[in-house]
Amino acid sequence: MTITYEWRGExxxxxxxxxxxxxxxxxxxETDWPAQLRGHxxxxxxxxxxxxxxxxxxxxxxxxxxxxxxxxxxxxxxRNRGVGSALVAAAVEGARAAGCEWLHVDFDDGLEPFxxxxxxxxxxxxxxxAL
Length: 131
Hints:
By secondary structure, the chain is an alpha+beta fold.
């Protein structure tokens, strides 16, 4: 089956909520994804197989040269098939095409091999304040 990837693809709130709930193991929320994306994101990438949303990554930005990878998620049925790294690759290309110079990501320790080895990010020093 063919998987398609679309930068700024059509978003369906229920589909994104269901994917997030499955991928991040939480109950669906009341997030208005179309409003969230239109208001804060440079773009996003949707992965679909036979019309079904199986992957998603959000790319918010600062309005200038910095963009950020957030919410990378792949449905169980799409895992271990390269969907996650293809989502991030499409996000890299979308951010580059928009004139961004930097794409940032932060992640849990267990995802280091994915982001460093599969997606090509490199380690940098950064700071964080928990709010």
